[in-house]
Design brief:
about 170 residues, alpha/beta, Rossmann fold, five-stranded parallel β-sheet, 5 strands, about 50% helix, about 10% strand
Length: about 170
């Protein structure tokens, strides 16, 4: 890259965050590749607080639906808190009460039929502190949610849908 260093912020949504610690069969598609990629990019990984909360909710749902047992649930919680939250994942988001969040999430919800948390992720990437980075350093959304990936791409974001695509360079 012509001797220039570029740092690409990597934003993970809940579907990707879950794969970082969950070992159940539901998370198998893309899990190993995502983990390898994540641990080689630990200086630039971000999530919104809502994605963190949604991740914890996914673990609870897996337990409630009998997809995992209590031992697995406790392990996922411990690993997520210690290996991800307590290690290198940083929180970044646009202030939720800002007018841009209201107008843009409403627009995205209507346009793509996504939930608020997914739309908030796109808004954060498009209007957050890293929006000013050049093309070689543009933020990358990492997700296992194909609908979110499609919408984010339509909005101009770089995306890695980790269950069916190769990792970004």
């Amino acid at each position: 890259m012509d001797g220039h260093y570029c740092c690409k912020p990597h934003y993970l949504d809940a579907s990707a965050l879950v794969k970082l610690v969950a070992d159940d069969i539901d998370e198998r598609p893309g899990r190993d590749l995502l983990r390898k990629y994540y641990w080689s990019h630990t200086s630039s990984v971000y999530a919104t607080s809502y994605c963190v909360g949604e991740t914890l909710s996914v673990f609870k749902t897996k337990l409630g639906r009998g997809r995992i047992n209590q031992v697995q649930y406790l392990k996922y919680l411990q690993d997520f808190r210690v290996k991800i939250l307590g290690c290198n994942l940083r929180e970044d988001e646009v202030p939720i009460l800002s007018p841009i969040v209201s107008t843009e999430t409403d627009r995205l919800i209507r346009m793509y039929n996504l939930d608020f948390v997914d739309c908030f992720q796109i808004v954060t990437m498009r209007h957050g502190k890293y929006r000013v980075l050049g093309p070689n350093s543009q933020s990358i959304l990492i997700t296992a949610d194909r609908d979110l990936a499609k919408a984010a791409r339509a909005e101009g974001a770089k995306v890695w849908e980790c269950t069916s695509e190769p990792p970004p360079d």
